[in-house]
Amino acid sequence: MACSGKGGTGKSTVSVLVGARLASLGKRVLLIELDSGLRSVDIIAGVYGRTVYDIEDVLCGRCDGDKAVVQSPLYPGLSVISAPYEGGIVRTAPLSRLTAAMSPYFDFILFDTAAGMGPAFEAGAAICSRALVVLTPDPVALRDGRIVADRLIADGHPQDALRLVINRLMPDSFGKHAPVYDLDECIDTVGIQLLGVLPESRELQRCAMLGEALPEDCMASLVGSAMAGRLLGQRIPLLV
Ligand SMILES: Nc1ncnc2c1ncn2[C@@H]1O[C@H](COP(=O)(O)OP(=O)(O)O)[C@@H](O)[C@H]1O
Ligand SMILES: [Mg+2]
C-alpha cells in the first residue's frame, strides 16, 4: 500500500506510476483507491467516466468485486477500482475478503490510502504485506512519515517490508540553507530503506491533469520502472 501521514505527498501519483511500470514488466496489477472524496487515480489512470461501481459499492455488498474493476486505457495490464466521490468508510473485513477474492487474478494488489492514519490506512495496514511511505522532502512530511512507519512496525510489519519514496525532489530541496540537508537525512528521519526518488516533473503533472499516458522515456517513467524493478527484487542503482 501507499501511505504518508501528510496529505498531497504523491501517494496516488506514485501508486499509478509504480502500478503502470509493474504492468509494463508483465505483472497483472490491481490498484484500489481508498481515498474517498479525494479521488484522483481515476484521472491519472484514465478510467474517469468508465467507472460504474466503486470500492464502496463492493465493500457494502452492492456489487461483486469484478464489476468494479476497470482496465486502464493508458497503461495496459493495470486495472483500477476507484474510490467513491464521497462518503463511505473503508472497513478491514470486506476489504480483506475482496483482496482474497482478487488475488488469484493479480500479481500485485496496490492500496492507495488516504492521508493520516484513519480507516483507509488502518484497513490497508491490516491487509498489506508491504508499504510504500511516500513523502516530500520537507521536515513536516518526514516527521509524519516517521510516525506512520513507527506505527506500521509497532503493528507487526517487519522494517524491511517498508520502503521510502521521496517525491517532488527539486534542485534546491537539499543543501546547507534548505530545511533538509540531504537524502541521508530523509532516510535517517523516517528510518526505513529507500525505494526511489522521484523528481518534480512537469510532464507527470501535465499527464495527470489531462488523463494522458506518461511517455515511456520521460524521467518519471524511468524512475517508476526502477522502483518497480526494485520491488521485484532487482538491484538497480538510484537514477536521481
Ligand atoms: N513528482 C511530481 N511532480 C509534479 N507534480 C507532482 C508530483 N507528484 C505529485 N504531484 C502533484 O501533486 C498533487 C498531489 O499528488 P497526489 O498523488 O494526488 O497526492 P496524494 O495522493 O498523496 O494526495 C497532484 O496535483 C499531483 O499531480
Ligand atoms: Mg491520493
UniProtKB/TrEMBL annotation:
Key words of the record: ATP-binding, Nucleotide-binding
Membrane-crossing residue ranges in chain numbering: none
Residues covered by the CobQ/CobB/MinD/ParA nucleotide binding domain: 1-208
Pfam families, sorted: CbiA (PF01656)
InterPro entries per the UniProt record, alphabetical: CobQ/CobB/MinD/ParA_Nub-bd_dom (IPR002586), P-loop_NTPase (IPR027417), ParA/MinD_ATPase (IPR050625)
UniProt keyword Metal-binding, yes or no: no
Signal peptide start and end residues: none
Protein name per UniProt: AAA family ATPase
Species whose genome carries this gene: Gemmiger gallinarum
